Amino acid sequence: MSNERAQGLLLDRLINSPLQHASQSVFKDMTSYEALCKEAQKEPELFWSRLAQEHLQWDHPFSHVLDKSHAPFYRWFDDGALNASVNCLDRHLGTECEHKVAIHFETVDGKVTSVTYRTLYERVCQLANALKERGVEKGDRVLIYLPMGDEGVVAMLACARIGAIHVVVFAGFSAIALHERLQDTGAVAVITANVQCRSGRELPLKAGVDDAIALGGCEHVGTILVYERTATAWPRQEGRDFSYAELVSQQPTECAPVSVSAEHPLFILYTSGSTGKPKGVVHTTAGYLLWAKLTMLWSYDIQPSDVFWCTADIGWITGHTYVTYGPLAAGATQVIMEGVPLYPDASRVWKTIQRHAVTTFYTAPTLIRALIKAAAQEDVYAPESYDLSSLRLLSSVGEPIDATAWRWFYEHVGHGRCPYVDTFFQTETGGHVITPIPGVTPLVPGSCTLPLPGMDVVIVDEAGEPRPWGQGGLLVIASPWPAMARTLWRDDERYRQSYFPEELGGTLYLAGDGAVRDEDTGYFRITGRIDDVLNVSGHRLGTTEIESALSRLDHAVAEVAVVGQPDPSTGEAVCAFVVLKKSDYGEEVARQIAQELRQQVARDISPIAKPKFIRFGSNLPKTRSGKVMRRLLRSFAQGEKEAQDISTLEDPSVLDHFSVIY
Ligand code: WT7
Predict the structure, then answer these.
(1) What keywords would UniProt list here (predicted)?
(2) Cis before 72 (ω within 30)
(3) Ligand 1, closest atom to CA 528?
């Protein structure tokens, strides 16, 4: 799309939102954006090679750029060597960045600690030394199970410093989920906290690690390092468990970084797929880090004077890339918040922006929807009641943002003077894929607009053939890029099958989302997952994972099917259709079983996966060949009955039993 065309055709729909203080920006206008896209298209290897040389600090330069010989297992900058923590920390020492604040950390009770790059460096070195003392070596896996805070960032970088591979598990995940990840990765150490402080309560965390280990088969865990968030006592096993005070505080504040190959795994991050077992997505060092830094410059126009606030937890890819690696590689100042932004109430968000003079606010549509609701209730929750004039850029990720919420955010929070950057990406892509360039790409409410330079995004049909604009299809990325996931941990075959399916020719990366390009602008609109993956408040959940958790209540449950249902606050909600073993139960029993089912899911996966709606019936609707008719269940859950689907049912009345919601 040319700029003139977009502007000529769509003046009424497109919003040109200039960016303040953009004198140093990489992109001046759409022409410079298009020029970079062309450069990437024409000579991709030269393009990426130039950027990798310009933006990363190498211990040993690379001589080859892309190795395709084992496609789809690509290798980038293969013979180069570097260290990710050096690129995020050491490289800023001796510059004006050294004594600049890297992190303003705000606890749930409003206490703020400001950590400079120098202090962060020293804390990372101390923790890295402690891990070394415990025998952790390059290539070992270290599991991080920490509440949101600066300590999590320190832990990730300490692993990177010694070449250990970190595996961050969101602290909201259960002991069972933790156990699965401990076993799958064979982690030798765990970094956790005694408790986490959330929503006015202290919740034990170390005890969860003990529960996970008690499930068996975790003899490889030789060290558990416990950060004492509060004075609360925690269960200790001598010789294995250590407090920070014992093991970390006395360590030297220097630790020689381990230089690793560009393709050395930096981390494994688990995410849900369409089958039961979560996928251990592997990212490597150089390509991932390059994109983390570049997207800070391109999508956020990050400047030395910026104060960046991304509300994501480090347990997700957004936290990895836009809390830890991106902001630090770019030398930015950022805000990290303990607990949830909405506790004690919605005013915390506005107060935080005001207090730290946040310039760049990156959050999730689900939080925006909650803020809209709160703002309508009382003035103290309304953004207008605060001085938010420091803001220059707004952004969101995780789910489609509807045009109404987009406009509210743009007008009430940004006062029409902050570009809204709707970023589309995934755990597997490492960083942003489709996103407007702030101040440059004309915006359309609810659209993530166009791919970043170097991202070869195409919409294809089921056979891998490109679809014309205006016609929906599968979102694929047709050329490799440095930040792409390299494999699934110890499961190359599943990686190939999940992301490079033979039906599409075996070379296209299949994102798992449907998408369509606007007929006039060519802008992308993401239409949602095409597989059995749900998106609840921006959290990715596998329906089969939830189904197996529910089936584990096997004294009561005969059969289950889980589908997603559109929800005004969480985007999508989990809806479970359950057939009980006993057919003669009353309402009281049903209610009690529904409660047990929810507890079961919270225990097996996480409270975020609990079904909002549970429906009991005597049989699941099935095709004559015995397949559960999910599409029918989805439309039934939404209150629609599709005549066409029902006609293939042997007994159309099976659905009526599911009418009551628990
Ligand atoms: C899935 C990836 C929380 C970090 C990003 C999520 C959906 C993500 C958008 C967006 C519409 C989006 C997709 C994608 N998604 N961003 N801007 N518009 N949908 O990472 O947990 O790996 O989930 O989130 O369905 O496939 P993730």
Answers:
(1) Acetylation, ATP-binding, Ligase, Nucleotide-binding
(2) yes
(3) 25
Instruction: Show the tokens assigned to 570.
Output: 């969480």
Give the distance (Å) from ligand 1 centre to CA of residue 590.
35
Rounded Cα distance, 524 and 447, in Å: 7
Sheet holding 360-363, edge to edge: 112-116, 101-106, 333-337, 307-310, 360-363, 393-397, 420-423
Q: Is the backbone peptide bond immediately before 344 cis, with ω within 30 degrees of 0?
A: yes
User: What is the number of the ligand 1 atom nearest to the C-alpha of 434?
Assistant: 17
Name residue 437's amino acid: I
Q: What token pair was written down for 300?
A: 């956020």
- State the distance from the centre of ligand 1 to the C-alpha of 399, rounded, in angstroms: 5
Q: Which residues in 544-567 are b (16+ Cβ under 10 Å) and which e? A: bbbbbbbeebeebbebbbbbbbeb
Instruction: Say how many C-beta atoms besides its own lie within 10 A of residue 85's C-beta.
Output: 26
Tokens describing residue 212: 């996970």
The closest-lying atom of ligand 1 relative to the alpha carbon of residue 423 is 17
Average pLDDT of the chain, as a whole number: 94
CA–centroid distance, residue 492 to ligand 1 (Å):
23
User: Residue of the nearest CA to atom 1 in ligand 1?
Assistant: 426
Instruction: Determine contact, residues 10/519, Cβ cutoff 8 Å.
Output: no
Q: How far, in Å, from the CA of 432 to the mean position of ligand 1?
A: 10
pLDDT at 9 over 50: no
Write the CB contacts of 385 (distance below 8 Å, at least 6 apart in sequence): 347, 350, 379
Identify the bridge partners of residue 466 per DSSP, sorted by sequence position. 460
Cα separation, 125 vs 132, whole angstroms: 10
How confident is the model over 323-382, as pLDDT tens digits?
Answer: 999 999 999 999 999 998 999 999 999 999 999 999 999 999 999 999 999 999 999 999
Q: Which residues line ligand 1 (CB under 6 A)?
A: 271, 316-318, 397-400, 422-427, 448, 511-513, 526, 529, 535, 538, 540
398-414 per-position pLDDT tens digit:
999 999 999 999 999 99
Other residues' Cβ atoms within 10 Å of the Cβ of residue 118: 18
Residue 25's pLDDT band (cuts 50, 70, 90):
confident
Identify the burial level of 29 via C-beta atoms within 10 angstroms of its C-beta, where 0-12 means exposed, 13-18 middle and 19 or more buried: middle
Atom of ligand 1 nearest to the CA of 533: 25
Q: Tell me the CA distances in angstroms from 268 to 145, 191, 519, 523, 661, one per residue in order.
A: 13, 15, 39, 32, 38
Residue 502 has pLDDT above 70, yes or no: yes
Report pLDDT for 78.
96
Extended beta strands in 432-508, E state: 457-460, 473-477, 487-488
214 CB-contact burial (10 Å; exposed 0-12 / middle 13-18 / buried 19+): exposed
Tokens, residue 352:
């935080």
Question: In Å, what is the CA distance from 134 to each residue of 189, 198, 240?
Answer: 9, 30, 9
Residue 607: strand, helix, or coil = helix
Distance 424 CA to ligand 1 centre (A): 6
Residue 10 has pLDDT above 60, yes or no: no
Q: What interface predicted TM-score (ipTM) does this complex get?
A: 0.99
Find the DSSP H helices in 265-361. 285-298, 317-319, 326-329, 347-356
Residues in the chain: 662
What is the Cα–Cα distance from 621 to 387, expressed in whole angstroms?
55
CA distance 441 to 393: 13
